[in-house]
């Protein structure tokens, strides 16, 4: 038990640090090769901050724990909206100016509904995983097209400001890209082993562990990125980071895990509780960010509502475990 706890703590620390290095290295490498700042903000940063979820879920699926992988993906999306955007809005209210982010929000909602349709029958097959991965490729193509077409979008401007603050040589950027990825894999292995060991010792399901401890740990890079961006006034980067990460979590994280280890029989709570909460929070984010008659922003009161919803969901999880 002590060794498992130590593995989780060390795994989290190494995971967060390596993810930060990986994102910086990937963004700097892309910039050196002439990728537009807007495209970096939409694809590289979103993909990079989802890297922990991707690697952890892949490792869990390889170990024959697809329920932990699914819990990690759904739980991370709930953490991203309820906890991370809630905390970010309390620190600095988030105004949505980017037209790209406004286009991504309804797309995220559609992707959530797509996942719900695939999970409706209580299973997740190889073919359904392929559908999500095809959707992921389509999202990347759309992101590239949108970034090349849009000029002067606020998300691109804010990404450019962030890149200037983290300038690297080409050699250093590639080094951290490679080393960050290697350490991500190592830390993920340590983290999954520790989490599964604790789940088995305490008699808690892998799904609950994935929805709580693992989801929170793999979402720490998004928390750091969004809070720092909001404090610098880079509001669209703060919310764009979350929206992009959530789309990647559903399409790539769930898709990759499903390719490795399909789920033949899924706990009904995955759809009836976890997916519904994720959908509800996505709808709340959509309504707040669009404004509908007022300026699109997430103020401190709405940030508090998101945190309260996240707390209520976790109380629900605790009650389900104790019951």
TrEMBL record:
GO cellular component: plasma membrane
Keyword Transmembrane: yes
The keyword Transmembrane helix is assigned to this record: yes
Domain Sodium/calcium exchanger membrane region residues, every copy: 4-144, 173-317
Organism: Marinomonas profundi
Cleaved signal peptide residues: none
GO MF terms, alphabetically ordered: calcium channel activity; calcium, potassium:sodium antiporter activity
Taxonomy, superkingdom: Bacteria
Transmembrane residue ranges: 38-62, 74-96, 108-141, 173-196, 208-230, 237-260, 275-293, 305-322
Membrane topology: Multi-pass membrane protein
Protein name as annotated: Calcium/sodium antiporter
């Amino acid at each position: 038990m002590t060794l498992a706890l130590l593995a989780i703590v060390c795994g989290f620390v190494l995971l967060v640090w390596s993810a930060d290095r990986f994102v910086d290295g990937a963004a700097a490498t892309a910039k050196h090769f002439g990728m537009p700042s807007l495209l970096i903000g939409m694809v590289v940063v979103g993909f990079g901050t989802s890297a922990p979820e991707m690697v952890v879920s892949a490792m869990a699926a390889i170990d024959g724990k697809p329920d932990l992988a699914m819990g990690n993906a759904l739980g991370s999306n709930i953490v991203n909206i309820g906890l991370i955007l809630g905390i970010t809005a309390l620190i600095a209210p988030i105004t949505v100016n980017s037209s790209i982010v406004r286009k991504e929000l309804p797309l995220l909602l559609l992707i959530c509904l797509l996942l719900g349709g695939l999970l409706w029958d209580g299973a997740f097959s190889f073919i359904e995983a392929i559908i999500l991965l095809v959707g992921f490729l389509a999202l990347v193509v759309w992101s590239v097209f949108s970034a090349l077409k849009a000029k002067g979008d606020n998300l691109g401007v804010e990404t450019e400001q962030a890149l200037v603050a983290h300038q690297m040589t080409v050699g250093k950027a590639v080094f951290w890209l490679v080393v960050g990825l290697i350490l991500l894999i190592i830390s993920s292995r340590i983290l999954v082993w520790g989490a599964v060991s604790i789940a088995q010792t305490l008699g808690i399901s892998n799904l609950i562990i994935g929805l709580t401890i693992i989801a929170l740990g793999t979402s720490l890079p998004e928390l750091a990125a969004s809070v720092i961006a909001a404090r610098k006034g880079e509001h669209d980067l703060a919310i764009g980071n979350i929206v992009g990460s959530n789309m990647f979590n559903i399409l790539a994280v769930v898709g990759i895990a499903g390719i490795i280890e399909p789920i033949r029989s899924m706990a009904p709570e995955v759809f009836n509780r976890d997916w519904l909460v994720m959908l509800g929070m996505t709808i709340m984010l959509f309504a707040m960010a669009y404004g509908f008659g007022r300026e699109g922003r997430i103020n401190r009161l709405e940030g508090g509502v998101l945190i309260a919803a996240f707390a209520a969901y976790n109380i629900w999880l605790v009650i389900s475990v104790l019951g």
